[in-house]
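FIELD: query
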Amino acid sequence: MPLLILIRHGQSIWNAANLFTGWENVGLSEKGILEAKNAAEELTNINFDSVFTSELIRAQKTAEIIIEGNSQTKPTSIISDLRLNERHYGDLQGMNKDDARKEFGEEQVHIWRRSFDIPPPNGESLKMTAERTLPCFDELIMPELKLNKNVLVSAHGNSLRSIVMKLEQIDEDSIVKLEIPTGVPRIYSFENEGFILQE
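FIELD: result
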C-alpha cells in the first residue's frame, strides 16, 4: 500500500526569531537543518516516487535534505507548487509575535492565528489557505497515491493543517488546535480510498 508522508519544514531562521513568516522566503536555521537530517534518517528506508513542496525555500531545502539522506532510489518527480505555500500572514509578516500582541492585543492576535476563517489584515485565514491547498492535493498528489506511489509533501504548518483536516476528517474548531511540529514526519498509509495515520 502506498504511503503519504507530510512534513513541516525544519525550523526557519524566522521561527527561531519568533517572527511571523508566511510567504517570506527565509532559510532554515541550524536547528532546522538538524531536524531535516533527523527526518531523513527516520525515512531513509522509504522509497519516494514523487515529492511535492511549496515554492518557499525552507520547504524545498527540507525535502532536499530528506532526499539526499534517503538510501533508496531517488524520486522520479519533484514538483513545487505555490498552492502548498504557508498561509499568508498579510500585515503581520516580518513582525515579532510579542510586538504584534502589544500592538493589536493578545486576544486579537490569538484570533488571527487560531480562528478558522478570520484572516489577519491583508492576509489569509486557514479556510482561505485550505481553498488553495486542497485542490492542489486533489489534482497533483491523490493521482500519484492512486497509482500506488509513495509521496512526500514538504510544506508548512497551515498548508499541512488544511490537508490533515481533510485526511483525518477533523472539524473546524479542532483543526485550529492541532500543532504540527517542525521537521517531524506524519506518515499515512493509503488504503481503500482512505488514510490511516501510522502511530
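FIELD: remark
Helices lie at 13-16, 30-42, 57-68, 97-104, 106-114, 126-146, 157-167, 172-175.
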